[in-house]
Prior knowledge:
By secondary structure, this protein is mostly beta strands. The chain has helices at about 5-15, 35-45, 80-90, 180-185; strands spanning about 25, 50-60, 65-70, 75, 95-100, 105-115, 120-125, 140-155, 160-165, 170-175, 190-200, 205-215, 220. The chain folds into 2 domains: about 5-135, CATH 2.40.50; about 140-220, CATH 2.40.50.140. It is built from 4 helices and 13 strands. Strand 2 (about 50-60) and strand 3 form a beta hairpin.
Amino acid sequence: MSGRVLFTVSAVFVLSLMDDADPFLVEATDRVSPPNVAEEYVLDQAPVAEGIIERYLLDPRGEVEGLLLRDGSHMYVTSRAEEHLIRAITPGDHVRVYGRRTTSDGLVQPDVIKNLSQHTTFIVPIRLDLPMQEQEAHVSVTEMYAAGTIRVLLYHAFKDMVQGMILSDETQIRLPLDTSVELRRSFHVEDSVVIRGHGTTNKFGRAIEAVAIGSDRDSLVPLGASHHSEP
């Protein structure tokens, strides 16, 4: 078993001793003897990112699945932990992140997120440690368009490739799984694009999974089986 898994399991065990505690949130005023696992982990590691949270990252269903810092650093936390993450961290909070930096621009793989504004520590759960939410099996999206320049390129949590982008109109775009590697590599910050796809809008923002892309509505090219699948 890896150290990452040992840490998460141990943290949940320690916090389960506290009545009504969120298993992934450590309050600064909580004191467990010996010191809790999150504090020990942080003391042994150098942070890989720090800054102000600009927004939540959303999947096309509108579920919160991660965080974007103002400097473009971004990280994913499974949408199954949406309620825990929203309770622990909100846009505008100053955070310090412990985990790993990847080779992809701006992507961080977080283990622990210290919220310096609220004086709490969020332990990033492993996806399979949490039950599947009902909405994961019942997608509710509508046809939508978005247009603007690319502000931020978003990278896949585990693969070194562009997974999506955030546009100047604030829409978050997700590329379909069968988008070609060549097309993923063709996107650059400040490129102008028009997107047609399916998504949703809620209090956290606007997110679309693209089905066609172009420089304007008259030049939209479908994304699908005609493109080479990613490796």
